[in-house]
Specification:
Blueprint: H1 8-17, H2 23-30, H3 34-42, H4 65-76, H5 82-92, H6 102-116, E1 133-140, E2 147-148, E3 151-152, E4 156-162, E5 168-173, H7 179-193, E6 199-202, H8 220-229, E7 232-235, H9 245-265, E8 269-270, H10 273-289, H11 292-299, E9 314-319, E10 325-328, E11 331-334, E12 343-348, E13 352-357, E14 360-366, E15 378-379, H12 382-391, H13 402-405, H14 409-421, H15 424-455, H16 462-469, H17 487-493
Parallel strand pairs: 1-6, 2-8, 6-7, 11-15
Antiparallel strand pairs: 1-4, 2-3, 4-5, 9-12, 10-11, 12-13, 13-14
Length: 497
């Protein structure tokens, strides 16, 4: 083939084929031309034995420019690329060097750098004995486009992986890279794994390390967590993400697997967070099935778990205001009106909060997230406030938390249509009544009815919807009661002799 050198191996194969085949067939067998075949048969010298050609077959396109102009530039700065060098030659010598010279220049620059260039970074493959190293990291998954309910779900995934076997565990994180997210994800992984490795490595997470300290310093809570499980904590060198490459590469494979599974599913919407977590766990289980044999070896080398988990929440006080809301870490939550004025102890978990009052849990809500059009994270449950709104329906129109209280998008659309078509007081009364129906256990069914009304361009009739959603009235059957005769009881009174 033109431009391709013939090897000694091809020559030997050609000669073997010539014992039984023609010259043309033998050449075709080894992938050479007929002309090359004739040349092989005319001489006994192997290609490797031929003298190296020291002369040029065509004029050097760079001429003296390579020695006189290009090399001094490269010696001054080895990072200059061939495109920049060609542009400089064209500037110095207009019309003399065209784009066809670029490939020659690229080849010579590459060859020169191989001998005289700067040292390049060397990567050292690492050996990870079983049971020694576990790695943790967070990755942003907003690009997956996951929708929970009817709202976009920006989130992260916390991933723990064993360096030896490649086994992994994933936790969905709605918030940031907090210590609670790290603690919850790590403990969930260890208990699902059934053992503890010797070392736990992360990057420079502020939840785990005091990055302002001159020397490596663990945060108090992370130090306590590692001590509880007997883990030796370590981190990558700041700015050297390749040191955590074992987990970084798994982020890419995980997100690719999730994206492909979502495409096969045909939808990126999930009814609630629990369904999305179950979906994610299914994908991770499939990936872990590929390393089952390696995991069996590594599990035997893990150290036992402690007797119990350590705390996976953060506590802080919060007072319920007169507006029946309280604020925790910048997020607003609604509460039943009975709790107004009370100071609760709030436990913040990675996915939910619990409110305690006097040793009794009085409220549990999912962690608030920022929705479209909101500046702050809010979780407003209309069921907490619908009774008060029924007493003051006129307050609904200008209620600060109104948009956050709609349970579904169709309820917001219904309010916008009511506000545009009816007087404010009437619109408020109708909307509050609809929320009251939803709070009675008809939220999903009422949403279907409202969607149909929007499609028909009709406004809702509160009374008609109330009658439609009311439980069917049971009919009282006619029961004929036959009273027994009293004569039979006289026989029971007779005393036997």
């Amino acid at each position: 083939m033109p431009g391709k050198k013939i090897s000694d191996h091809q020559v030997h194969k050609f000669k073997n084929h010539r014992n039984t085949l023609s010259q043309v067939a033998s050449a075709a067998k080894v992938g050479i031309s007929e002309r090359s075949a004739r040349r092989i048969e005319q001489g006994d010298v192997l290609p490797s034995q031929r003298p190296v050609r020291s002369w040029r077959t065509r004029q050097d396109p760079l001429g003296q420019a390579w020695e006189v102009e290009v090399l001094p530039l490269l010696r001054a700065d080895v990072t200059l690329n061939a495109v920049t060098l060609l542009e400089e030659l064209q500037r110095r010598h207009p019309g003399q060097y065209d784009a066809a010279v670029l490939r020659t220049l690229q080849r010579r620059v590459r060859q020169w750098r191989a001998v005289y260039g700067a040292e390049r970074e060397v990567y050292f493959a690492q050996e990870h004995p079983p049971g020694r190293l576990g790695l943790s990291d967070f990755t942003v998954c907003d690009a997956l486009g996951v929708v929970i309910g009817e709202a976009a779900f920006p989130h992260r995934l916390y991933q723990f992986a064993l360096a030896h076997s490649g086994w992994r565990h994933v936790t969905v994180v709605a918030g940031g890279e907090s210590f609670i997210a790290l603690s919850t994800g790590l403990q969930a992984a260890l208990w699902r794994l059934g053992g503890v490795p010797e070392e736990h490595r992360t990057d420079s997470l502020s939840a785990a390390f005091n990055n302002l300290a001159e020397q490596t310093e663990l945060t108090q809570r992370y130090d306590a967590l590692c001590s509880h499980y007997g883990l030796r904590a370590s981190r990558c060198t700041p700015g050297q993400s390749q040191e955590n490459g074992s987990i970084e590469s798994r982020h890419d494979s995980l997100k690719t697997a999730l994206d492909q599974a979502l495409r096969l599913r045909g939808s990126r919407s999930f009814e609630d967070l629990a369904n999305y977590e179950a979906f994610t766990q299914l994908i991770v289980d499939r990936m872990n099935a590929r390393v089952a044999k390696h995991l069996a070896v590594e599990r035997a080398m893990l150290r036992p778990l402690p007797a119990r988990r350590t705390a996976e929440f953060e506590e802080m006080p919060a007072r319920v205001s007169k507006y029946a809301v309280f604020t925790v870490k910048g997020a607003q939550y609604s509460a039943p009106s009975q709790l107004i004025g009370h100071r609760m102890m709030v436990r913040l978990y990675v996915g939910h909060i619990e409110c305690w009052l006097g040793g009794q849990r009085v409220l549990e809500r999912p962690r608030a997230t920022v929705a479209d059009g909101q500046r702050h994270a809010r979780d407003i449950d209309y069921r907490h406030l619908v009774a008060a709104l029924k007493r003051k329906p006129g307050a609904f129109a200008r209620w600060v938390l109104r948009d956050a209280a709609f349970p579904r998008a169709v309820y917001r659309q219904t309010w916008e249509r009511l506000a545009a078509a009816r007087p404010e007081r009437e619109a408020c009364k109708t909307m509050v009544g609809l929320l009251g129906l939803a709070a009675d256990g008809h939220e999903a069914q009422l949403a279907v009815e409202l969607e149909q009304l929007i499609e028909l361009d009709q406004l809702p009739d509160l009374q008609a919807l109330s009658d439609l959603l009311a439980p069917p009235k049971g009919e009282v059957p006619d029961v004929a009661v036959v009273l027994p005769g009293l004569a039979g009881y006289d026989a029971l009174l007779e005393v036997a002799p």
